[in-house]
Write a structure and sequence with these properties.
Number of domains: 2
CATH superfamily of the largest domain: Glycerate kinase, domain 2
Oligomer: single chain
Strand order of the largest sheet: 3-4-5-6-9-10
């Protein structure tokens, strides 16, 4: 922090949320409260981050001065749910987490039925965003209850998936085995003029041994028989998509994300799949914020060897490293393989200060982050203060 006078450093705070305890913006506030104990006159810039998964809507809304909105849509098993989405500060970009409408957490364990679960509500959310003037959409994939290849999403947007008798298919992935024809004449025409980015770091194809059904189906309650049935149904679906729409989506990396929703978006919309953290870095303007900064703080609830694979702290550290800016990771806890991050971070510091039940640790998250960052500030002051 030698590029400015010690009393007026520029510090960028760019954490992810701490799951189940703090939003990314709340982490920023706690970080600043700690650092201000040593650097009260510093300039602090909050850039709440996410990686395309849970918390992406809130982080991007907070980072851009947007608004969180709600809509009542169809849940994974057909009942109504209230789903949250975001309109960013530009007024034209909407952010959706598909799990808000079609997520596994919306379905009690005893009621889960992967064969019938649908992404219809995600399609309804897309339509609501278009109604509200969005012309750019960011869809975060992950946490789905579904395995329908995005068929329900397409049906909600006006596509017809028909059986041999010309009747619309029922919702759910199992029904795709009876798909005979796709008619997109009624597909929402606004999609043609909409830029759609799919935020996902999953590289699984739609079908096969590493596809949506085989890899993620069991996590959603699929039996071995269900996996075989659903994989065959998605294979058939991909064949009809290729024949009727001229798009080959079955083996595209990322097509298997969110039970194949990635494939459905590629088939029925002008979507492209990108790394979630890369999208968030661009939309938040993180590169511009970091340019000229003296220090960057990032972090999330847990940092370990997996952090290198598309997680928020690694993305932020990569931006900082490109400009030669010191970067410190603040984590709720650290795990196996965290030493592999040493070349990317100047320090990684866990915040939990005592052994306690998880409920207490989560409740103390803000004070733990604040206390840790106060200590970080004192250590930094030691390096820049003449003695």
């Amino acid at each position: 922090m030698a590029s400015r006078t010690p009393s007026t450093p520029l510090i960028i705070l760019a954490p992810d949320s701490f799951k189940e305890s703090l939003t990314a913006q709340q982490v920023c506030v706690a970080m600043q409260a700690g650092l201000e104990q040593e650097f009260p006159d510093a300039r602090y810039v909050h850039v709440p981050m996410a990686d395309g998964g849970e918390g992406t809507v809130q982080s991007l809304v907070d980072a851009t001065g947007g608004t969180v909105r709600r809509a009542r849509v169809t849940g994974p098993l057909g009942g109504a749910v209230e789903a949250v989405f975001g309109i960013l500060g530009d007024g034209e970009t909407a952010v959706i987490e598909m799990a808000a409408a079609s997520g596994l957490e919306l379905v009690p364990t005893a009621d889960r039925d992967i064969r019938c679960a649908t992404t219809y509500g995600t399609g309804e959310l897309i339509s609501v965003c278009l109604d509200q003037g969005a012309r750019r959409l960011v869809l975060g994939l992950g946490g789905s209850a579904t395995n329908d290849g995005g068929a329900g999403m397409a049906q909600a947007l006006g596509a017809q998936l028909l059986d041999r008798s010309g009747r619309p298919l029922p919702l759910g992935g199992a029904a795709l085995a009876n798909l005979a024809r796709i008619d997109v004449s009624g597909l929402d025409p606004r999609l043609r003029d909409c830029a759609i980015e799919v935020a996902s770091d999953v590289t699984n194809p739609l079908t096969g041994p590493t596809g949506a059904s085989a890899v993620y189906g069991p996590q959603k309650g699929a039996t071995p028989a269900d996996v075989t049935e659903l994989d065959a149904a998605l294979e058939h679906y991909a064949d009809i998509v290729r024949r009727d729409l001229g798009r080959s989506v079955g083996q595209v990396p990322g097509a298997g994300a969110a039970g194949g929703l990635g494939a459905g978006l590629l088939a029925f919309t002008p979507a492209r799949i990108s790394s979630g953290i890369d999208i968030v870095i661009r939309l938040t303007g993180l590169v511009d914020h970091v340019a000229g900064a003296d220090l960057v703080l990032t972090g999330e609830g847990r940092m370990d060897g997996q952090t290198r694979f598309g997680k928020t702290p690694f993305g932020v550290a990569s931006v900082a490293r490109a400009t030669g800016t010191p970067v410190i990771g603040i984590a709720g806890s650290v795990g196996e393989g965290v030493e592999e991050l040493a070349e990317y971070f100047d320090a990684i510091i866990p915040v939990i200060g005592r052994v306690a039940p998880l409920s207490e640790v989560l409740a103390e998250a803000a004070s733990n982050v604040e206390r840790t960052c106060a200590n970080v500030g004192r250590l930094i002051a030691l390096t820049i203060t003449d003695r």
